[in-house]
Every structure is written in structure tokens, then in C-alpha cells.
Amino acid sequence: MDYYPEPIENLISEFAKLPSIGKRSAERLAISLVFEDDDKVNSFIEAIRLVKSTVKQCTICGNLTDGEICSVCSDRSRNGKLLCVVESVKDLIAIEKSGEFRGKYFVLGNLLSPIKNLELSDIVIDKLKNRVKDGVEEVILAISPTIEGEMTGIFIKEVLKEFDVVVTKIASGIPVGGNLEYFDGDTLFKALEDRREI
């Protein structure tokens, strides 16, 4: 039985499709929009429209940008010899919030997972190799310490064997099975600082 008029039920259903939004949160969001003034609702709609029409992935690293190249890749003061490989943009942002890492990034998009039938595309691997060719001396694997993360790290180490590059991974403070996006900046900084070669 539907408790709300169909348009509200539809909105609840759409909100519930978003990550980490359950049915109750979706209901609260939908109902709050019903009672919000028109200007605020229109501003919300315009913000969504603007994000969808202007934000894309950086052509170099995969970070989010409203241009071709993100602010990290275009920052000449950053150390291009250090390349931090992360699973997602959320992980990149988590490390950036620590304020301590001054190298560059590479976003994989996903991890190897035979169970989920996920693999790293040839395009991603070729882009990573091209980044390493451009004078990278150290590749830091800042990947969540899950089974998929460990498999991905081993795979990347193999792929990069043809290059004269040190491959390290983040260390202490990140428990096995943890996701980087949930750790505070100090923990991520310590993990980056105490990285070890693999």
C-alpha cells in the first residue's frame, strides 16, 4: 500500500537509489522538499542540473573537474615524481583533506574482483603506464586493505615491472577490510608517511 501520493512515492524511490540513503531518509528528504519554498527547490534542481552538465573526470588522473584537467593535475607545485593510486575519487578527496600529500594521483575506478566480475580495463592500465613513463619514481598504492585491494596491488606491481619505479603501499592505521574514505586525515597521513615497498 502506498502511503503518499504517487509523485512523492516516485521521489522517495529515486532518493532511495542514492548511496547510503535508506527508505526512511528518502522519505524525510522527499517530504522536506514538499514543504520547501519554490526558490530553494529550484536552486536544488539547478545545482543537480549543473553538476550533470559540467562535472566530468579529469583526462589525466580521473579526479572530478569542471574543465579538462583537475586542480591537482594543473598544480605545478606538486611533486610529479610521486603518484598515488586510489580506487575512487572519494579516496583521493579523503587523502587531499589530510593536507599532507603533495604528489599527483591516479584513480582506478574499481578494484579487481572475480566475485563481482570486475577487472581493470586495458584503457586504465595503459593510462597508468603512460603516467609512470612521464618521470614517476614512486607509485604509492593507497588502496583499501581488502582482498580485492590486495589483489589489485599485486596486479599493478606486476604491470609496472617494466618500469624503473618503486611501488609502495600505505601502512599503519588502516585495518584490513577498512575503506579509506572513512578514515580521518591524520590516520591517512600516517599511513602514507609509513608506506612500505611491496
Task: Walk me through the structure.
The structure is a single chain. The protein is α/β, with parallel strands linked by helices and 198 residues long. It folds into two domains: 6-43, Helicase, Ruva Protein, domain 3, CATH 1.10.8; 76-197, Dna Topoisomerase Vi A Subunit, Chain: A, domain 2, CATH 3.40.1360. The protein has seven helices and seven strands, in the order αααβββαβαβαβαβ. The strands form two sheets. Strands 4-3-5-6-7 form a five-stranded mixed beta sheet. A two-stranded antiparallel sheet has the order 1-2. β3, α4 (89-98) and β4 (103-107) form a beta-alpha-beta unit. It is elongated. InterPro entries: DNA_Rcmb_RecR (IPR000093), Rcmb_RecR (IPR023627), Rcmb_RecR_Znf (IPR015967), TOPRIM_dom (IPR006171), TOPRIM_RecR (IPR034137). This is Recombination protein RecR. It comes from Citroniella saccharovorans.
Task: Present the secondary structure layout.
Blueprint: H1 6-16, H2 23-35, H3 38-54, E1 56-57, E2 64-65, E3 79-86, H4 89-98, E4 103-107, H5 122-133, E5 138-142, H6 147-159, E6 166-169, H7 185-193, E7 196-197
Parallel strand pairs: 3-4, 3-5, 5-6
Antiparallel strand pairs: 1-2, 6-7
